[in-house]
Each structure stands twice: as structure tokens, then as C-alpha cells.
Design brief:
The chain is of the alpha/beta class. It has eleven helices and 18 strands. The termini are far apart.
């Protein structure tokens, strides 16, 4: 079992949680930012010597850094849907980006599960959950779950639509949800300007969901930043410049919260939607990258600050994006949704309330974490020469992580078991030595998936009978 290690570097106010007023909440969600893609001096994680992120480093020193923080999926849309709803991907049906039948048909041994691309109306977003507590809300940047987040509970939308990445990071943006700025204006800066302006418009308490399009492709950044990073020897100067620009804009947002007297009663959560983009990321000890079920595909930055309430430090307790919704409900003092007479029961939350961890250093009770990904992604990996991943599922129980690929033949079925407490790099498959534990974990996983109504890929033609 992974343990919790909190290294407090300052003390928090003795105010009881029940006495705290509902805080403003700012979620900063970066696109495709890998677990180790921030600067080398980030507390608890370290990072890259060729990336400069001084504002995030300073923020992290004032915050709780969760080093075993996970996204809900290895790519964009399903992760965002689960963060918004607090529910695993089989429940809302957004399993991947676009079609699940990616890559060449002749190389697909299975028929993947059909994918939803719009968040169903019956799902409850973060904005909808907090509205009963009087929260106003704004979404800025990438949405990727439908054409307009205002149809899913947000009061204001700036820049969000169905697109998964910008046509250009420089104006004109050709984004129907964002007016073009002066020619050459940089999108990350523009979204920060809009967020700062909203701080004067929103009525507290408020929820701000700032989902930067960066650092997703296309790799574009101001030329002076690119040249400076090239001169400093960055592995990918464009990518390093995008990370640095994001850090600078995040710093501007923090400065605005302080200048407007809002920082003291605002929870700021910084995270990413999935692992880093393979060609440019550097995940250090972690295996894999965006689009894989390895740690590099699903472990992401998780940093939270509430000055005087959340003690700065480092925690290695596993946390998951499905935990965001129940945690924000607790912070906002929202009564859990109950079924109205004659109405269907509200959607069930899969995450847990993290306020005990944030306020008192109490690890959540042991629970399995799940990633169901019954789809194909083109590319290549160290497992498959023609795929980043084939349909599969991962489950983590304590320190044991089981990855199983479905199907038959050389691409599946295939099981791998890693003990992350001993092997965080996932270098040694322990499945041959731990058969009984694998069967117990598989049984738990199967019960969870059945309860969610999860769907599985099928063979296009039924396998031949032995008889």
C-alpha cells in the first residue's frame, strides 16, 4: 500500500473546517502537460532542467503537491469528462477522442467500443454541482465535450467548443467561441487576460475553469521565447517555450488574485488532462506517454493551494480526477444530490472527498483506481509496433497495478502486473509470480465494470469452435 508522506513547512490556521466560508475555486487544467515536464526544482517531483517554470515552483512551495496524482484517462476528452462529472469513463461513454476505430483497419483484431463525443445531458458538471450553493461559473479555453459549456451548467464561456486543439496559437484564432484579438496575439496570454477580467465580473463564491489549450500541438510560441530556449539547449525549444509561456501566464493569474484581494479565500488546483506528448515530453523515470496506460500516460501534476487552510507539503497518496467533484462539493458545502420524488436517481460519483487529505493529511481510505480504455490509438509503443495502445484496462489496488489488453493472438490477451512501491518505472512484469493476487484484482475490476455497465471490444467474426 502506498503511504502518505506530508512534509509540512508551515502551519495552518486552527479554524475548524465547518467554520470556513465556501471558497472561490479556480481549476487550471493544462493540456498534455506531462508529470515531469515542469522545472527541475518543483517540490516532490523535480522535472526538467531545460524547462523554466519559476511561478509554478513558487506556487508549489505554498501548496500541497500530490506526487501520485492521476488523470482519468490517457487522452483528452475522456479525462475531461470524468473530471467534470466525478465518474469513470464507462458511465458517461466518452472513451477516447473522436472515433475509437483509430489506425489501419487491417491491423485491428477487435471491433472497439463505439465512442461518445458529447457529454450526455444527464451528467452533472462541476458548475451544475456548485450552483445550488450560489456559485457563479465561467469556463475559459478548451472544452472538447460539446459545442458550448453553457448548455452544461456554466454561466459564461470564453473559447470553449468541440475542438480538441487550436487552429493557431496566434490571432486570428478562427475560434467561434473567441473573438480574434490583434494579429499575432498569443492564445495563452489572451485566455489569461480574459480570466483576470472575469475576476471583476464573477460574484463570489465562483468557479473558474481555466483550461489552457497549451501545451497541445501545434507547437507554437512567441519567437523570442523559442530562441532563448534554443540557446539554452532545450530538447524541444518550441515545447519548452510553450511551457515557459504557460508558467508566466499562470503567474499573472496568481498575481491578479493577490492584487484583487481574492487569494486568501480561493482554492487553486493546477493539473493536466493526461500524460505528455511522446515526441517532446520527458517523463523521467516513468514509462509511457500520452495515449498509454503506463504511468507516463496517466500520472500528471496535481498541486492545490488555499493559503492558511491547506498546509504546504508533499503527499504520495494516490488521487484521481474523479475525486475533484466530491471534493469541491465538500468545499462548497453542497448537500449531495438526492433523487426528487418520481425522478431518476442522480448520477453516482466514483471519486472520494479529498478534504481530509488537504486539511489534515489523512489519506483516503484504500480504494481501487480504474482506467477502462477499450479502444485503439495509432502510433507505436514498446509493446506494439503499430499501436500506442490496443483495447485494454488498468486497475491499481494499493501499490499493485494490473494492465490487461483484450483480444487474442500476439496483441492480446496480455497481462502485466507492476508493484509501483518497488518498481515505479514499470520495468519488471511480476505477473508470473503473483497469480492469486492477479485473479483477485481481476475479479474486483470485473465487478466494478459490470456495475458501471462497461462495454468491451468484440471479435468481428466469432472464433472457431473446437467442436
Amino acid at each position: 500500500m502506498l503511504h502518505v508522506a506530508l512534509a509540512f513547512v508551515s502551519s495552518c490556521s486552527p479554524v475548524q473546517e465547518s467554520e470556513l466560508p465556501p471558497p472561490n475555486i479556480v481549476i487550471v487544467l493544462v493540456d498534455d502537460l506531462g508529470w515531469g515536464d515542469l522545472g527541475a526544482d518543483l517540490p516532490g517531483i523535480g522535472g526538467r532542467s531545460d524547462h523554466r517554470t519559476p511561478h509554478l515552483t513558487g506556487f508549489a512551495k505554498e501548496s500541497l503537491v500530490m506526487t501520485n496524482g492521476y488523470s482519468a484517462a490517457p487522452n483528452c476528452a475522456p479525462s475531461r469528462a470524468s473530471l467534470q462529472t466525478g465518474r469513470y469513463t464507462p458511465r458517461h461513454g466518452i472513451l477516447t477522442v473522436g472515433t475509437s476505430a483509430r489506425g489501419r483497419a487491417k491491423n485491428r483484431a477487435l471491433v472497439p467500443v463505439p465512442n461518445e463525443t458529447v457529454l450526455p445531458d444527464g451528467e452533472i458538471t462541476l458548475a451544475e454541482r456548485l450552483a445550488p450553493a450560489g456559485y457563479s461559473s465561467v469556463h475559459l479555453g478548451k472544452w472538447h465535450l460539446g459545442e458550448d459549456p453553457r448548455t452544461q451548467g456554466y454561466d459564461v464561456n470564453i473559447g470553449g467548443n468541440q475542438r480538441g486543439h487550436p487552429k493557431s496559437y496566434f490571432s486570428p484564432y478562427k475560434n467561434p467561441a473567441l473573438k480574434d484579438g490583434p494579429k499575432g496575439e498569443y492564445l495563452t496570454e489572451r485566455l489569461t487576460n480574459e480570466a483576470i477580467a472575469q475576476l471583476d465580473e464573477l460574484k463570489p463564491p465562483f468557479l473558474m475553469h481555466l483550461a489552457y489549450y497549451t501545451v497541445h500541438t501545434p507547437l507554437q510560441a512567441p519567437k523570442e521565447r523559442i530562441e532563448e530556449r534554443r540557446g539554452a539547449g532545450a530538447k524541444s525549444p518550441k515545447y519548452a517555450a510553450m511551457v515557459e509561456a504557460m508558467d508566466a501566464e499562470f503567474g499573472r493569474l496568481l498575481g491578479a488574485l493577490e492584487a484583487k484581494g481574492l487569494a486568501g479565500n480561493t482554492v487553486v488546483l493546477f493539473t493536466s488532462d493526461n500524460g505528455g506528448h511522446g515526441p517532446v515530453t520527458n517523463l523521467g523515470p516513468l514509462r509511457g506517454y500520452k495515449g498509454t496506460l503506463d504511468e507516463g500516460g496517466i500520472r500528471v501534476p496535481w498541486i492545490v493551494r488555499w493559503p492558511g487552510r491547506i498546509a504546504p507539503g508533499v503527499s504520495d497518496s494516490p488521487v484521481h480526477h474523479v475525486d475533484v467533484a466530491p471534493t469541491l462539493e465538500s468545499l462548497a458545502k453542497v448537500e449531495p444530490a438526492v433523487a426528487r420524488e418520481g425522478a431518476a436517481p442522480p448520477p453516482e460519483l466514483d471519486g472520494v472527498d479529498l478534504t481530509g487529505l488537504w486539511f489534515r493529511g489523512e489519506a483516503p481510505a484504500p480504494r481501487p483506481l480504474l482506467w477502462h480504455f477499450p479502444v485503439y490509438l495509432e502510433g507505436k509503443s514498446d509493446r506494439f509496433p503499430q499501436w500506442r495502445t490496443t483495447p485494454g484496462c488498468a486497475i491499481q489496488v494499493g501499490s499493485l497495478k494490473l494492465i490487461e489488453f483484450f483480444g487474442a493472438g500476439p496483441l492480446g490477451p496480455r497481462r502485466e502486473l507492476f508493484d509501483l512501491s518497488l518498481d515505479p518505472k514499470e520495468t519488471t512484469d511480476a505477473s508470473a509470480d503473483r497469480g492469486p493476487e492477479i485473479e483477485a484484482i481481476r475479479a474486483l475490476r470485473d465487478r466494478m465494470l459490470r456495475e458501471m455497465g462497461a462495454r468491451f471490444p468484440t471479435f468481428e467474426d466469432p472464433p472457431a469452435s473446437d467442436g
